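User: Quick one: structure for sequence A, then sequence B.

Assistant: Sequence A:
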Amino acid sequence: MARKKKTARKTLPADIGKVLKRLHYPLDVIMLCVRWYVAYSLSLRNLEEMMAERGIGVDHSTVHRWVIKLVPLFEKAFRRRKRPVGRSWRVDEAYVKVKGQWKFLYRAADKAGNTVDFLLRAHRDKAAAHRYFKKAIDQNGEPETITVDKSGANLAALEALNTGRPTPIKIRQNKYLNNIVEQDHRAIKRIIRPMMGFKDFRCARIILSGIEIAHMIRKGQMHDDGVAATAADQFYSLAM
């Protein structure tokens, strides 16, 4: 097993290899635990028990540390390979509990249901919406149309973004047109339910990022270089 770990790490990008060098477990075990945690409705203690059944002793806190250290690097790798999205976006916020308080996960999907982008914010106001829209546009290009609900904060943020633009983004306020993204929230909420709420905002942001990556890969939003691959294979390729 140790020989396999050493061989696999020769092909790793420098940033990921540097982190893995300090984790002292075989690469395949680390990647399996991280993917299972962000892709399925499992708690950290579930994973601890599942690994024990396979003869691998790993504490649930160790799995959590792996997720926090590696997911930001995987997100960076994923964004380089993310497929373009459409130019008609539906934006909505999902509620996420952090330290016993509700926080707001801003999310958008295009009209085909592809995830545009996401951002966890402590408040639901104009500043939070503006930060989200700016990030989404920087990462995915400028849309033609953005559909939001009746939130005044979202409308105010979009109007501020449109100020000075030669071609303003068309804004639609229609609750029913947002069914696509509202339905898509369910896939994220299903994964976080066993986690029983997050204890730390930074950790919540990172873990939600991993969940979003796994969800987008499952929806076929990652370039696979023309090679047929499972969602698991595509996730693991982020470390290669």
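Sequence B:
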Amino acid sequence: MTVQSTARAAEGSAADAAEVVAAARTLAALGLVAAFGHVSARRGDRMLITPAIDLAEATEETLLEIPLNSTVLPANTPGEAWIHLAVYQARPDVHAVARAIPESAFAAGAVAHRSIPPLHGQAAMLGETVPVHDDARLMRSADIAEPAARTLGHADALVLRGNGAVTTGSTPGHAVARMWLLDTTCRLHLAARQAGAIQALTSAEIDGWRAAAPPLLDRLWAHLQRPDTA
């Protein structure tokens, strides 16, 4: 590897770490995590992940780098890091994962049957529907996490009944933007159910929103990082 390519690789690694930290701190500022939650980014055959600490205290120095084929988690790794590993192994297109506990996901996961349909355009950026994984156990083993990754399928968000949510993205920022969208989607689903009428988006409407997603997620992520947003 040349000096120039080495420098570029180091710059890319630093950018990955900075993005993971920014995503973690934004999740905390938005109130989508309390004492628990984590963010990760794919780095080749490894992942960078926040440790088992308050995400508001995450720094680049605290991040852990873990092989994607790990069978044992290093010390201070979040016990539910298995869900990150399972998603990366099942979805080569995913480059970042956010794990959070929005209260709306607890409520929506308790009343939804298998999935939550998109009721507004931005919700389509989470998938054709948001699947609900019917297992409230902590994702603290590969045996528990791998079925959850299968439930996620090709969607970009997953509600874990009784255990919060997981979102994915091409960047940590996109994963956090989708977590914010998921919180909104769950709250709207609950409100619509209470009103007694749910009209989901059509397939054509969903396809149109999903095709437009990348730049919209960029704009949403930039907005969520503003000091006055939280």
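Confidence is low (pLDDT under 50) at residues 1-11. The two ends are 43 Å apart (CA to CA).

User: Thanks, that's what I needed.
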